[in-house]
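User: Run a structure prediction on this.
Assistant: Running it now.
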Amino acid sequence: MQTSLVCLLSEAYPELKNHWELPGTILDCRDIPGTTCYCDAEAQALLRRRLEGCGPAFIRWIDTGDYHYLSRLNAPHEPYSLILLDHHPDMQPAAFGPVLSCGGWVRTLLEEDPLLDDVLLIGIDPALEEETAGFPDRVRVVTEARFHEAFSLRMHKPVFLSIDKDVLRLEDARTDWDQGSMSLEGLLYILEGIFAENRVLCADICGERPESRGGTPQDRAVNAATNAALQKALLRLANL
């Protein structure tokens, strides 16, 4: 397994080149239409084919939050639990039939993937907690108002970890979605606990703010520093 795979679906990562050296293999998918926020069946098939062609990677950088649905396509091929650190639960009901969305990919996994056991959502906006209804025995929620409290990180199965940097405060990340209040230090502390309590299979990370979405050089510098810190911490915790 390679350590890192960087998926290009927008200009977000290329714009970071003066601030952050992109790690690992680069997979350019910017030529695939129908991928922003929603991903139709044809685009899903193309993305799956390209992802499979790159082989497995422990860390997958999956661009802005508009493409967080890639975590659905990256799901492990063995029984697993999902831990999501995100300001949004990404559990909206499907709005357009079989079209995969960045706002509903967790619900899609729960409904369609028999390998997924349980889900822990950390840092979500309390106003969005109602979106998580319908899976009382499979989904635990630690909202933004409670993530600093003590809670169990032990999961039923080995962990698929997914991080949207919009869970972080503006001092530590700049994304194109509304953001939470977690500090980078707090996120790194939670990651320590996750690895201490579980075997972690792989990790996806998204959450950037490209120039086309109003991103500035300062935004890129902030994101590059956080990306480097996350890359270093995850590889250390995984002993890679």
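The helical segments are 41-54, 70-73, 105-112, 184-197, 217-237.
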